[in-house]
C-alpha cells in the first residue's frame, strides 16, 4: 500500500506518518522548505506525488491552497483525508463544498477528537438535554513567535477561533447532528501579544430542535484538554478527553488513521460531509462575526 502526504503545513501529518508508516509505504510532497520530513520518498511537486498512484492521500496544505490541491487529488481515484480545517473563509468553504459534494464518500475532514476512545465509548443520553458546552484548551503561544503565520491569520487559516474552535464544534455536531447555526461569536487577546487573531474566544450555536450550545476556546492554556458537558434538569454529564500515557491513541490520532485506512480498503468516509460542512459553516460564520482584537489588554502583562 502506498499513501501520499500532500503537504506538511502543520504538525498533524507528522503524527499521521508515524501511524501510517506501520501499514504503508509513504511518499511526500511539501512545497515550502522544511527541516524535517517523515521517512518517505520525496516528490518534487503535487503532480509528481499523484503520479506515483497512491492508494490514499493525506492533504495538509495552507488553507488558501486547499481547493486547488484538493481538485488535483480528486482527479485520481484515491480517497482523501483533509487535515483540519478544510476551509477557514467563505470563499474557501464554497470552493471545497463544490468539489466534495459529488464525491463525499471519498473525502474525510475532521478533528481527530471525534475518534478519541473516551468520546467514541461515551454513552451520552441526549434525552432531556437542555444545553451543551464544549471547552477547548490548547495553547497557541507558538503563533505569537511567528510560527506558521498563515494559521494565525483570520483570512487565511482562520486563527484560533477556527483552528482550535473546530475541535469543540466537531464534538458537539458529532453528538447533536448538523442542523445547527451560529448565533454569536467573540474573540480577544488575553495573554499573547503579537497574535494576528485571538487567544481566547467563544461561539454560541443553536440546533433546530432548540438546544443551545457554546464552545469556549482557551488558547492560553498550560495544559491540553477537551471537555463536552451535557446539561439536564437533574444534573450534568461530562466527557473529558486528555492525552494520557498514549496520547496518539487517547486524542484520536490513531483512530482517524484507522478510519482512513478503512476508506482505502473501500469503505465510505465515516464522517458525513453534511456534518463537516455544517461545522465549517459555523466556524466561518464565527470568523466573519468576530473582530479579532475586541480586547487586546493581556492579563499579567502578556507573554
TrEMBL record:
Superkingdom of this protein's organism: Bacteria
Residue span(s) of domain GFO/IDH/MocA-like oxidoreductase: 126-227
One Pfam family in the UniProt entry: GFO_IDH_MocA_C3
Coiled coil (residue ranges): none
InterPro entries the record matches: GFO_IDH_MocA-like_dom, NAD(P)-bd_dom_sf
Protein name listed in UniProt: Oxidoreductase
Species of origin: Microbispora siamensis
